[in-house]
Design a protein that fits this description.
Strand 1 and strand 2 form a beta hairpin. Helices cover about 40% and strands about 15% of the residues. It has one domain. The strands form three sheets. Strands 2-1-10-6 form a four-stranded antiparallel sheet, covered by helices on one side. A four-stranded mixed sheet has the order 7-8-5-9. Strands 3-4 form a two-stranded antiparallel sheet. The chain contains five helices and ten strands. Helix 1 crosses helix 2, helix 1 packs parallel to helix 4 and helix 2 crosses helix 4. The two termini are about 15 Å apart. It has about 210 residues and is of the alpha+beta class.
């Protein structure tokens, strides 16, 4: 991983704190809405890696576009956390203990704290709305292609400024794009764009292999 501030290079595991947005949204959004999108995308990504899928019908295009929209919105909300939402014209709700709040969340139920809705619940509602809105913008004209690197490897940006989803060091999905193979020079140009769009960090399997 390369940190833009200080130009620091370090190793990072998938569980590293920079990849996690702790309690940024409610439990139901995390294990329901978001996981459903991820669970549909992962087997498709594996089929692409294995060479079993290289073209995408309407349903598969929707799966890819949904995953990209989730990535975009999740990144935006992590960088711009929402505060507790104040409800106007309502009576204060009852007081809940922390344990009761956790139980309500796991049951998929919302709750008030006085006259406010906790930020993570507001985030969950906002995330679903924004993913749907972005998906409606992307999906009607989405044309995802499989892009492979014959030389070098792709970096992964911390912010998806471009519709480019690396799923392997030498394989990515891009829109709009045809299935194609890029040489090392072209991979370097792609990486240059991805790095320039990363305000905080970017990462790769091996940064030395990324032109």
């Amino acid at each position: 991983m390369f940190h833009m501030q200080g130009a620091v290079v370090r190793r990072a595991k998938p569980t590293d704190r920079v990849f996690c947005a702790r309690r940024a949204w409610d439990h139901g959004t995390e294990v329901g809405f978001m996981k459903e999108i991820e669970d549909r995308f992962q087997p498709l990504a594996q089929s692409i890696v294995d060479g079993h899928v290289s073209t995408f019908d309407r349903e598969l295009t929707h799966v890819i576009s949904s995953f990209f929209a989730l990535w975009v919105v999740r990144t935006e909300m992590r960088e711009q956390p929402v505060e507790d939402a104040v409800l106007q014209g309502v009576l204060p709700g009852r007081a809940w203990s922390r344990d009761q709040e956790e139980r309500l969340e796991k049951a998929g139920l919302g709750f008030q704290r006085g006259i406010t809705i906790p930020a993570r619940q507001a985030n969950g509602i906002g995330l679903r709305i924004r993913v749907g809105r972005l998906l409606r913008e992307i999906n009607p004209s989405a044309s995802w292609g499989v892009v492979r690197a014959s030389g070098g490897e792709f970096v992964v940006p911390d912010r998806p400024a471009y519709p480019f989803i690396p799923i392997e060091p030498t394989l990515a999905l891009a829109h709009p794009a045809m299935n194609q193979t890029l040489d090392r020079i072209a991979v370097g140009l792609v990486n240059q764009q991805l790095r320039s769009a990363s305000p905080h960090y970017y990462f790769a399997r091996d940064l030395a292999a990324c032109p």
